[in-house]
Amino acid sequence: MKKISFEQISKILPIIGIILFIYIIWNIGIDKITNAFVTIPIEYYVLASIFIVPRMLLYAVKWQYICKKQKMNFDFLYLQKIFMICMFYGTITPGAIGLHMRIFYLSKKGQASLEKCITNSIIDSATAFISGLILALLTSIIMFEAFPGLFTYLLIFLIFYLSVFVFLMKKERGNKIFKILIRPLIPKKYKDVMYKSVESFYEDLPRMRDMSIPLILEMIIMILGAIQVIIIAQAFSINVPLLDFILISITAVVVASSLPITIGGIGVREFTFVALLSTYGVLPETAFVISLSGYIVKSLFPSIVGGAILLKK
């Protein structure tokens, strides 16, 4: 029997999300979706796009804060530019893994070790995901009767992710994991090199209490992103409480992030959005178009700007 390689799996996973996306379109009906799209006036997209500016600024503020805690000093505008470039990479890769291209930009610019920059990128992404999980968990409590399984899924995911994050933030525990699980698998001549590499991961590591500010900033960023989606939703007559809509919008993004089987979360995000809004009587085509339009103004527009910056370089 032929073995399936990781490379083959990585090629298959994005197709699953695309198939899901196509299935949703087929199930709802392309005519209904098209009609819903043309319902949105262009000025709604323009108004929603205004919120890109504060979101991008807060992203850079958060990232610069983490960098400073790691004793890496970078110019604010440089971080802003690199973040938008990496948003472009994130948009075209499954699970937004392209965002981690910033590791190489940081290492090259700041002359910091690659391991230290990897830690920086992981902390930034981890705090973003944990913030989203916390807000999504609130959604699952509000919608427990309609989707009881969602609460269990998100709670388990949050406990697991938070536990791993807290555990590995301590150098002593990270070294133990290396010695027990990784070191025995490494050839003897590389053991010392790998040990030094692990030490570099924990160089100038921020304290756990320093993580509160990135978590709060990320929640604000997510709420601003949800407001962008709310502006798009004003083109339709939907009866969803403001707080519920904000949390549903964030939850759809979090679920898509936790299942990195497609590029840009396409398919998974729309499926979640349609399912959650159905409990408020929102038509599937309306929910689908709101979700996809929200993705366009929240992620696609700034990533296009990032792509343009990359081309100029």
Model description:
With 313 residues, the chain is mainly α. The protein is 75% helix and 0% strand. The chain has helices at 6-28, 30-39, 42-49, 52-69, 76-91, 102-110, 114-142, 148-168, 171-182, 191-201, 212-233, 242-258, 268-278, 284-312. The longest helix is centred in the middle third of the chain and has 29 residues, at 114-142. The model is unreliable at 1-10 (pLDDT under 50).
Q: Tags for this entry?
A:
single chain; 313 residues; mainly alpha; 75% helix
- Measured between the Cα atoms of the first and last residue, the distance is 47 Å
Largest pleated sheet: none
Outline the low-pLDDT stretches: 1-10
Question: How helix-rich are the residues, as a percent range?
Answer: over 70%
Number of domains: 1
Structural class: mainly alpha
What Rg, in angstroms, do the CA atoms define? Answer: 21 Å
Q: Please report the number of helical segments.
A: 14
Tertiary shape: globular
Strand content: under 5%
**Helix and strand succession?**
HHHHHHHHHHHHHH
Average pLDDT score? 82
Number of strands: 0
